[in-house]
Amino acid sequence: MPAASGKRFKPSKYVPVSAAAIFLVGATTLFFAFTCPGLSLYVSPVIPAYNAVVFLFVLANFSMATFMDPGIFPRAEEDEDKEDDFRAPLYKTVEIKGIQVRMKWCATCRFYRPPRCSHCSVCDNCVEEFDHHCPWVNNCIGRRNYRYFFLFLLSLTTHIMGVFGFGLLYVLYQVEELSGVRMAVTMVVMCVAGLFFIPVAGLTGFHVVLVARGRTTNEQVTGKFRGGVNPFTNGCCKNVSRVLCSSPAPRYLGRPKAEQTVLVRPPFLRPEVSDGQITVKIMDNGIQTELKRTKSKGSLEVTESQSADAEPPPPPKPDLSRYTGLRTHLTLATTEDSSLLGKDSPPTPTMYKYRPGYSSSSSSAALPHSTSAKLSRVNSLKEPNSICESGHKPSYRSEPSLEPESFRSPTFGKSFHFDPLSSGSRSSSLKSAQGTGFETGHLQSIRSEGTTSTSYKSLVNQTRNGSLSYDSLLTPSDSPDFESVQAGPEPDPPVGYTSPFLSARIAQQRETDLHGRFAGAASPKHAAPREPSPVRYDNLSRHIVASIQEREKLLQQPPAPGREEDAGLADSGIQSTPGSSNAPRTSSSSDDSKRSPLGKNPLTRPALPRFGKPEPPPALRVRSLGSPDQPAAPHLGKSVSYSSQKTASQAGGPETEEVALQPLLAPKDEVQMRTAYSKSNGQPKSLGSAPPGPVPLSSPTRGGVKKVSGVGGTTYEISV
Amino acid sequence: QVHSLQELRRSASLATKVFVQRDYSDGTTCQFQTKFPPELESRIERQLFEETVKTLNGFYAEAEKIGGSSYLEGCLACATAYFIFLCMETHYEKVLKKISKYIQDQNEKIYAPRGLLLTDPLERGMRVIEISIYEDRCSSGSSSSGSSTSSSGGGGGG
């Protein structure tokens, strides 16, 4: 049997079944030998006969449950799985009596598991209508042998009750003279019977309920239908009759292979094709056609799904290599709308849960990133911030220009947008960065696993090979844009979520790019769908530029106060340092400008208490700047340093904005600031400055330090 | 071997396979989708295909039917401690034999002449009906892929 191939003899798995057999046969034999003669003599000969019948029944069912094939599916052959693993969705849905049921891809058996089928890890087989793996019979209980297992439980309960009862009768009524041996043996048998009665009866009761409800143990234990409707039930009576009275299902394994006696020989007959029947097959060359096709519903959509998906997942490579994820996302709507006769093909919605089963590292981290694209994007953005706090700066810096460069790589066209992350060496460092890094890290790990040519189809769902798919990271509208713009660098979409891992240099580059293409179609286009992201690079660039300009203006005013203020600000924050008490008007105003929407107090300068350290070396700050800042470096060094706390542009952005324009402030800036705080936390570390620490909201109010609460509950100390 | 004859004779090669999936809309009862696969568009009439699948579905429904005969069979099996299974065929197995015969019949009469071949779903664990599509391949020529309409359709052999 293919299923059993390669298995070594493991004695441990035979222990329970052996023990069960020994107890059963042994105790019953003792009962027959020691108790029954007396009973038959003095009570009735029917007793042993009855017990014998019951015992025979128990044995027969026990044997059938143990040795019968539970309904193992044979492994699918190669040709059933035409599709490249990496591009196939992990799940397919079918509609069963109005209820959506998910079929999971079984990597071992290489097919989508039919409903109620499950893969037994002990037996390493997919079993039809899998109930559970029973160690006492050392076999899976499935469609074919569930009946025997159930009857075994019933008969065993009956048998135990009989043995115990008749033994009790024997002992209590002292049926025959008190022979020490017989009495003792009967007592022992009774003890054994009594001991086993409780679990066996409990299990029997449990299965009676399951049969009545039409559920399997697997479904009951995993809570599949908790609070929901079970699509597999036909009512109590029908369920019971189905279990007990249906004809035993055939086994799939071990069948004699049918000889193919029919010869196929040309010439072949062809059906007449009328004009009306000619179907046009659209060959996809891009997302637009794909979109149209999938949205058009109708026969093309249907037939494509039928044939292409046939057994294994989706469609031919050239068509959907890039957009299978998108396609499934799109087709979900259509297929759900269309007839519900188990169209199992495309409908793997991008709303699918992310199944950690196959992925190794990303399981926990990935969970928040499942479902909608927006959600994943937002999460991806937020998580990096928290990660930044923990100070993964070094890893950031080790990841120069990961995004922009690779994004423009010529290989982009071939695979999905995350071709960028194909640098294996970086992937390892990123991966170690962990946390949100998981996204890029994971992708990179995938890439480094050699899946370079594959696309990350159905990215929200996990793909069959366990890789995470990331098209959900971009809203569907993004992808077409991506494709249409083609190999042109489009840092915008990935920017949002990969930003935390970009070093300052990347930020520089990014800003230059952004400036360069600020007016580009891409950015606004991508900005729009990425509404939830708190940080926007296009905005940042504007702000950065503006902030720098303003900064210059400000600094041309009293330099001394400016410097001090800068020193205070140097920690890339609005300073709260008691030391720098004279907050220069200029900087304060610049800060205020940032803060005005927040505090409405032009004279107050919100302090980012975290960055209490004044005067970091200008050089460091300059380095941390993005490119726009650099030209103004000397002056702006200090101020800009705080403004560009962004190792990622994100961090820097808000802070420059703090310096920058007040009109540019928006609620999102608040978020940015907050995120900047977290980023800045890391920043000072890397700069060798004061530990980020928790926001020292508790910093003492010295003379001339005001506390201002900003939007979002943040409190700033402003030195007046 | 008479090589000259073989050269005259045209051979068929397996081009591709189509898989007709199970229809789970009614639970786990065994039935297959009657949706017509596009690959067969130019190979067989829609009606013939649908009829085949519908007949198969009917057979499976009959096999899984819970009625008097299956109940009696169960009782008998219980009474004989399932030794009866050594001698007798179950109802399901009997219907499966009928199905096998039917498929072979269909293959001979309808599918093979069109360069198609049905495979008993039982071999695949009743998950799919596999339809193999053959292409005409002249012994000297190369095979064409997919279900493209070849010009051999009308040509005479030999």
TrEMBL record, chain A:
It is an enzyme of class 2 (transferase). Its main location: membrane. The keyword Acyltransferase applies. Residues 290-455, 467-535, 548-720 are annotated as: Disordered. Residues 359-373, 422-432, 580-590 have a biased composition (Low complexity). One of its GO terms (cellular component) is plasma membrane. GO terms for molecular function: protein-cysteine S-palmitoyltransferase activity. It is found in: Cell membrane. It is a multi-pass membrane protein. Its EC number is 2.3.1.225. InterPro entries: Palmitoyltrfase_DHHC. Keywords: Acyltransferase, Cell membrane, Lipoprotein, Membrane, Methylation, Palmitate, Phosphoprotein, Transferase, Transmembrane, Transmembrane helix. It comes from the Eukaryota. Pfam families: DHHC. Residues 433-455, 467-478, 640-650, 675-686 have a biased composition (Polar residues). It catalyses: L-cysteinyl-[protein] + hexadecanoyl-CoA = S-hexadecanoyl-L-cysteinyl-[protein] + CoA. PANTHER family: ANKYRIN REPEAT AND LEM DOMAIN-CONTAINING PROTEIN 2, PALMITOYLTRANSFERASE ZDHHC5. The DHHC domain is required for palmitoyltransferase activity. This is Palmitoyltransferase. It comes from Piprites chloris (Wing-barred manakin).
From TrEMBL, chain B:
The keyword Hydrolase does not apply. Residues 18-130 form the Golgin subfamily A member 7/ERF4 domain. It is found in: Golgi apparatus membrane. GO terms for cellular component: Golgi membrane; palmitoyltransferase complex. Residues 139-151 have a biased composition (Low complexity). It comes from the Eukaryota. InterPro entries: Golgin_A_7/ERF4 (IPR019383), Ras_palmitoyltransferase (IPR051371). Residues 137-158 are annotated as: Disordered. It holds the Pfam family Erf4. It is a lipid-anchor. Keywords: Membrane. GO terms for biological process: protein targeting to membrane. Belongs to the ERF4 family. This is GOG7B protein. It comes from Piprites chloris (Wing-barred manakin).
